[in-house]
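Design request, tokens follow.
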């Protein structure tokens, strides 16, 4: 147990709330740490996080070069305030992605005069060079690596159509070399699954025993089944989750829901769309994708090629309440990824009592349990296997019910933000004690 409240600086270079796991992690971890009695100040560049009451936010302004609707914009001269701004602009002009580096430098510049006010500095996936001088101070610096971005890079390189695209991708992902170097120099690292730990150890040459595995969670009261159920809810260290009292959102026959934070090969969306074409041949089905498709991306191309404009629908920027309602309206949820370091959407679907199809990529079997327990498993990158597993669930209501019940129980017993916050605070305390020695 932790003897006294901790003062925590939580760094997040990019905290978009409705797309991708980093903003979700920052919001929910900070809220639960505050509920445990700790003091949390989040430091973020744009896009800014959504934070709950009691969590303070300090904005570290950037040029915000990738903001919508004008990504890769040209800033006005008056926007350049520091040499870091010049570095950010120059790096973008060469095709690089500078945000992890420039955010870490801004964090160092801001925090070096405030470190006496914090017990620990926690970096969320940035791994920029600015963390190194911070780590040499008396305040311990810890870092979460959700998964090594080298996985994204390698999948995109494999799908690149020509050498020009591969050259562009190598320049864009050049920051991963920095992240590996920084990770090797930080003493306290955590990640979200055993699979992610192994991938990080291999990609960044970090000893696996330096990576603490602390899974992330879900709000099991918000993400809950449409019908009242108390089965499996509540754990000894978290108290009872209480009855599920979600609005009665009846499943829509044939509705399949997936979440894709980006239209990239990593998320396997193209293969799921190809599976939908096979399913549509004999069933009335629709696919709702939480995310967006790039006009020239693999998903949009597959939809056009297969004539699925009326079958596949995209929604984006929805709050958690609407996302939970959408999951509850699904007959089946799918995570078709070619890699996942954890997969919050899988846990959110399980918490909502929705039968699930996942690939065997990365941490998905670790998170969802053995094949047939809370989900059906398929080989990644295989549209035929996806179509067969989804079709099996669409045709078998008792199997859907069994997977839904087991999924809800697994989510509540293993994956809540309170559990994540308790384990994270214990990890902070270990780092603080070790730094003191």
């Amino acid at each position: 147990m932790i003897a006294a409240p901790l003062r925590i600086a939580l760094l997040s270079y990019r905290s978009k709330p409705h797309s991708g796991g980093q903003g979700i992690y920052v919001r929910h971890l900070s809220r639960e740490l505050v509920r445990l009695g700790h003091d949390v100040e989040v430091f973020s560049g744009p896009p800014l996080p959504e934070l709950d009451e009691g969590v303070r936010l300090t904005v570290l302004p950037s040029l915000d070069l990738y903001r919508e609707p004008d990504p890769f914009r040209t800033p006005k001269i008056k926007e350049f305030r520091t040499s870091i701004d010049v570095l950010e602009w120059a790096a973008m002009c060469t095709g690089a992605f500078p945000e992890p580096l420039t955010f870490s430098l801004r964090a160092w510049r801001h925090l070096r005069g405030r470190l006496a006010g914090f017990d620990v500095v926690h970096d969320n996936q940035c791994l920029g060079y600015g963390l190194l001088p911070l780590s040499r101070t008396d305040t311990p610096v810890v870092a979460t690596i959700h998964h090594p971005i080298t996985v994204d890079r390698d999948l995109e390189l494999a799908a690149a159509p020509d050498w020009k695209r591969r050259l562009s991708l190598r320049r864009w992902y050049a920051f991963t070399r920095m992240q590996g170097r920084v990770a090797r120099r930080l003493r306290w690292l955590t990640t979200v699954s055993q699979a992610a730990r192994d991938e990080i150890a291999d990609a960044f040459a970090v000893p696996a025993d330096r990576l603490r595995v602390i899974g992330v969670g879900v709000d099991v009261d918000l993400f809950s089944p449409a019908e009242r159920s108390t089965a499996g809810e509540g754990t000894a260290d978290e108290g009872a989750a209480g009855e599920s009292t979600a609005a009665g959102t009846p499943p829509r026959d044939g509705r399949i829901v997936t979440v894709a934070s980006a239209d990239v090969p990593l998320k396997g969306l193209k293969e799921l769309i190809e599976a939908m074409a096979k399913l549509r041949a004999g069933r009335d089905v629709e696919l709702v994708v939480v995310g967006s498709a790039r006009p020239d991306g693999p998903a949009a191309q597959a939809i056009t090629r297969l004539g699925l404009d009326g079958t596949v629908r995209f929604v984006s920027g929805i709050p958690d309440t609407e996302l939970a309602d959408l999951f509850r309206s699904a007959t089946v949820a799918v995570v078709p990824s070619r890699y996942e370091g954890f997969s919050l959407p899988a846990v959110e679907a399980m918490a909502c009592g929705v039968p699930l199809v996942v690939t065997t990529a990365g941490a998905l079997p670790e998170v969802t349990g053995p094949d047939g327990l809370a989900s059906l498993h398929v080989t990644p990158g295989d549209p035929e296997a996806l179509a067969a597993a989804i079709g099996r669930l669409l045709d078998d209501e008792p199997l859907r019910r069994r997977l839904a019940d087991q999924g809800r129980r697994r989510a509540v017993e293993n994956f809540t933000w309170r559990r994540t916050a308790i384990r994270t605070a214990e990890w902070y305390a270990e780092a603080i004690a070790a730094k003191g020695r």
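Comment from the thread starter after seeing the answer: thanks! The CA atoms of residues 254 and 284 lie 6 Å apart.
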